[in-house]
Specification:
Blueprint lengths: L1 E7 L2 E8 L2 E5 L1 E5 L11 H6 L4 E4 L1 H6 L3 H6 L3 H5 L5 E3 L3 H6 L4 E4 L2 E5 L6 E4 L1 H11 L3 E3 L11 H26 L10 E6 L5 H12 L5 E4 L8 H11 L8 E4 L5 H9 L4 E3 L2 H6 L3 E4 L2 E4 L19 H5 L2 H9 L3 H27 L3 H12 L4
Parallel strand pairs: 4-5, 4-14, 5-6, 6-10, 10-11, 11-12, 12-13, 13-14
Antiparallel strand pairs: 1-2, 2-3, 7-8, 8-9, 15-16
Pathway: tRNA modification; tRNA-queuosine biosynthesis
Pfam family, one: TGT
Keywords: Glycosyltransferase, Metal-binding, Queuosine biosynthesis, Transferase, tRNA processing, Zinc
Length: 376
């Protein structure tokens, strides 16, 4: 499934073959929480925006329209009209983000729906069943995302429980993939490394989950309160213990600079709501730095958003027009902003892959990190 093509230092160039197509890595997964990218972006748009993988949210799709509905519609790919790979998260992050609405037990987690207050139970088996109904390409194991910082004793107990949950996830996925009516019997399973900011627990947990021979390994529970430097230190500590022949995914990260630094430390896959969320408020990424298109200086600026970008937005519209759309609260503002930011992120990954192909990634990193972190 995953082929490591070459390395430059710890940075990796690879590809992952799946039943829904090949993912060239490093890659960024565009986040369509409820089977749609917020900002009015369709599955057809995503093809033109160079998206390789879309990420959808198990918890939200379970709440509405219901995973049984999506199963009846033939799975997420048919439901969305998206033919390329889809990764579904497990619902585990909601254990973290809905802290006031949940109770964690060994068998799983009792939720209170954020939509209507309905009581929901989700454990490893339920998460796998929901994701099997969704028929995604890649399913994430059910875990607990621990806050940073967290007490050491609690973190240790939490990762031990997450390991037990992972074994249950694998057993249930094997069962589901063997059923005759399963939409995608080739669904892959990724395990998630946890351990807060404790390097010894992170290493211990990775060593444990590697023994389960999964299809890929994620590092979760980062970018949730710790500094960027702490995050990089955790990645560096864990990376030597992740299998070299399996894909590595850093969950929920991040800025363009975070991605470059993650690749530098051996990460293959990324996802984050940042490009779409920021775009909906007028914060746009360019090859000269980060701009806020709402600023008055763009009132009569006839230049494209980014003269170095060949996305449809930059090829057809001026900064002045984009600013007008945002100031007038036009729906088109969000759509065009999100289109540009996703195109930028996917092009960034293209450039990273090209640099790795040409053995120039270190030079690429030195050049672009200070530019892409700059606010104009």
């Amino acid at each position: 499934m995953f082929t490591l093509i070459k390395k430059e230092g710890s940075a990796r160039r690879g590809k992952m073959d799946t039943v829904h197509g090949t993912i060239q890595t490093p890659a960024f997964m565009n986040v369509g929480t409820s089977a749609a990218i917020k900002g009015g972006i369709s599955s057809f748009d995503l093809v033109d925006l160079k998206c390789q993988v879309e990420l959808c949210n198990t918890y939200h799709l379970h709440v509405r329209p219901g995973d049984d509905v999506i199963q009846a519609m033939g799975g997420l790919h048919k439901f969305m009209g998206w033919k390329k790979p889809i990764l579904t998260d497990s619902g585990g992050f909601q254990v973290f983000s809905l802290a006031k609405l949940r109770k964690i037990k060994e068998e799983g987690v009792f939720f209170q729906s954020h939509v209507d207050g309905k009581r929901i139970f989700m454990g490893p088996e339920q998460s796998m069943q929901i994701q099997s109904h969704l028929a995604s390409t890649i399913a994430m194991a059910f875990d607990e995302c621990i806050e940073n910082p967290a007490p050491y004793d609690y973190t240790l107990k939490s990762i031990q429980r997450t390991t037990r949950w992972l074994a249950r996830c694998k057993a249930e996925m094997n069962r589901l993939n063997s059923l005759e009516d399963t939409i995608n019997p080739h669904q892959l399973l990724f395990g998630i490394n946890q351990g807060s900011t404790y390097k010894d627990l992170r290493i211990q947990h990775m060593q444990e989950i590697v023994q389960m021979e999964l299809d890929g390994y994620a590092i979760g529970g980062l970018a949730v309160g710790e500094t960027a430097e702490e995050m990089y230190e955790i990645i560096e500590a864990v990376e030597p213990y992740a299998p070299a022949d399996k894909i590595r995914y850093l969950m929920g990260v991040g800025t363009p600079v975070n991605i470059i630094e993650g690749v530098y430390r051996g990460i293959d896959l990324f996802d984050c709501v940042m490009p779409s969320r920021n775009a909906r408020h007028g914060t746009l990424f360019t090859w000269s730095g980060i701009i806020n298109i709402n600023n008055a200086k763009y009132l009569t600026d006839s230049s494209p958003l980014d003269s170095q970008c060949d996305c449809p937005v930059c090829q057809n519209h001026s900064r002045a027009y984009l600013r007008h759309l945002f100031r007038a609260n036009e729906m088109l503002a969000m759509r065009l902003g999100v289109m540009h930011n996703l195109y930028f992120y996917n092009t960034l990954m293209e450039k990273i892959r090209d640099a790795l192909d040409n053995n120039t990634f270190e030079e690429f990193r030195r050049h672009w990190v200070p530019i892409l972190s700059k606010r104009i």
